[in-house]
Amino acid sequence: MFNKESLRRHLLQLDNRGYKAYKDIQGNYDFSEFTLIIDYVQGDPFASPSKFRVIVPPNIAQLPRELFNSRSREIALRDYLSRQFDKAAHSISIKRGTGKSGLIAVTGFGQEVLERTSAFIISSNTSGIEDLGGVELRFAVGLPAGGRSILGRQAAEMLCEDIPQIVSNSLKYLHLNAAECRRHVETVEDADWLRQQLAQNGLVAFVADGSILPRRSGVDDRPLLNNAVAFQSPPSLKVEFNCPNRGLISGMGIPAGITLIVGGGYHGKSTLLRAIDLGVYNRIPGDGREFVVTNPAAVKIRAEDGRSVAGVNISPFINHLPQARDTAQFYTENASGSTSQAANIMEALEVGRRKKEEGRGKKEEERGKREEGRGKKEEAQSFVLETELVAISEGDLVPVLLVDEDTAATNFMIRDRRMQELIAKYKEPITPFIDKVKQLYTDCGVSTILVMGGSGDYFDVADTVISMDNFQADNVTEKAKEIAKNYSISRAAEGGNFFGEITQRVPIPASLDPSLGRRDVRVKVRDVDELAFGTEDIDLGAVEQIVDSGQLRAIAAAMVYAKQQYMDGKRTLSEIIDLVMADIDAQGMDILSPFPEGDFAMFRRFELAAAINRLRSLSVVAK
Question: What is the model's pTM?
Fold first, then answer.
């Protein structure tokens, strides 16, 4: 291992040489208080930045064990340290030359606290420091260049002066704001704990009193500062919990079943639903929605005109199409609003409708085979047991559907009495959602939260009706039921006696090709809504619960991993995703990449399935 001074000398010797000579500095360097590891060096100043790591041992970082003594706390601490390193880097690093020269940064951050590969906690059993933790921090560096020549002096200053200062300011507990760090960890732990209480209390979501739900704008997810109305639960829906850290908390509990959110325009219906659909994730302190928590298997459903659909059984909603098109194995390159919304629901049910314990034996057996010879089997099994409190744990995997009429297909949602009179059922292929939503709950255990401002027909099927007035909630269930009774619509139910069949599909391996016709793999992420996979571009703009580009990068890597490891033409998509998620549970997201990645963020099985399902080349067979 080299040291800091040898790195400095080497960089000075590289001054004015061609940029590719930077490759020579790859390796490990002892900086006395930490180790600097240069894993990858960019070949061009305009290319993706170089990949660096620092490892700060427990006796230097001195992180108190109480801050990472549970899985929930550890993830929160890793998030906090990543943010502090990034903040410190931005305050010190400056532009040094062309391209990305001078950049020192961790992956970008939003309001959500996600498990990331940017930071890891290092525990030690060394006598005297067993109650302390160290940290591994991964970050990107833009090595300085003038044109395509190395700026060695600037590089030496950057790597040998700036990075040690950043490490000292952000990864030594002595220099951190202890109260702020503790608040970050405890806020996440309380949110995780609250999310765990939902199912056992018959709830699918909880919105804490005092929450600030409005955001600054459609492109700024921070809380509204001026004139924001703090949320208060209606008394009839108020529930209380005693959190591990903050103690007693009260708020609105949304029960299982069918819930309508109604009210006038601009009074907060969609704002409430957006807070709920992002309640599958934890948030940073000060977000305003820290204690809005949702069943972790909640899935936002919307119409998605133009998406491709591969062999999905949409017959519970749509059948006897013209030209005798098959809807039990429905294919299209250009879905309509109604067919896309039906497909989105059926795909969520396909990968989520079962208890977590089902199939676990098979999953454990397959994972055991993959871990054989690695010497980590016991550690991996122990790690899995610790993941029960993870923020993105999907519980029993029975989805909760979240639907906003503003982004739904009107003809999919409702067919009123007058239209039924004009167009006979045998001429209408679509069975509207209103006639299936109750069956989803009674037959499949799937609850639905639905924003509906334009049709009172849903009063007949709703279990709970919440009215939003100036961002304040009121339980108007009894009034809505009374209106439904007094103003009978006499519409004929069209849904039959049962919901219908949920079909499992087997992906054809050859239909997922991440390469460009050669051996190399090509995946590229653009923000949070587009993924280049081989020769295809996957549009994920309508998958609203992907909130971080790091999630999409990890999803891209997981698709390649799934293709290489588990797609055999026999396993169903759901089984494949089970195995991929189990491997990540056991060994972390690093298993998805051949070298350490610092910009992966944890995703859910539903978004991984969504990316695969939107691959236009996807071909499947029914199980």
Answer: 0.92
* CA-closest candidate to residue 61, choices 187, 169, 138, 183: 169
Q: Residue for token digits 């998030």?
A: 79
Tell me the average pLDDT across 309-332.
Answer: 94
Distance CA 77, CA 388 (A): 17
pLDDT of amino acid 376:
40
Give every CB contact of residue 24 below 8 A, 6+ residues apart in sequence.
10, 14
**Tokens 């005297």 found at:** 128
Mean pLDDT of 63-71: 96
Token pair 């588990």 in the structure block, residue: 566
Q: What token pair was written down for 544?
A: 């609203």
To which H or E segment does residue 511 belong?
A: none
383 or 58, which is more confident?
58
CA separation for the pair 87, 64 (Å, rounded): 22
Is the torsion defined by CA of 119, 284, 607, 298 positive or negative? positive
What gap in Å lies between CA 336 and CA 341, rounded to an integer? 8
The number of residues in the chain equals 623
Determine contact, residues 400/297, Cβ cutoff 8 Å: yes
What's the mean pLDDT in 207-213? 98
Residue ranges in 337-462 assigned as alpha helix (H)? 337-352, 360-371, 377-385, 410-413, 417-422, 437-444
pLDDT given for residue 317 in this prediction: 97
> What is the Cα–Cα distance from 433 to 454, expressed in whole angstroms?
15
Mutual angle of helices 377-385 and 573-587, in 10-degree steps: 100
- Give the pLDDT band of residue 516 (cuts 50, 70, 90): low
Distance CA 412, CA 338 (A): 5
| Cα(435)–Cα(359) distance, integer angstroms | 31
Pick the closest to residue 475 from 258, 261, 208 (CA basis): 261
- State the residue for tokens 């909760």: 400
For the stretch 5-20, what's the b/e string if a residue is b when 16 or more beta carbons lie within 10 angstroms of its beta carbon? eebbebbeebbeeebe
User: CA 163 to CA 397: how far, in whole Å?
Assistant: 43
Residue 73 in tokens: 């706390």
Q: How far apart are CA 378 and CA 37, in angstroms?
A: 29
Nearest-Å Rg of the Cα atoms of the chain is: 26
Task: Cite the DSSP H helix spans in 530-604.
Answer: 549-565, 573-587
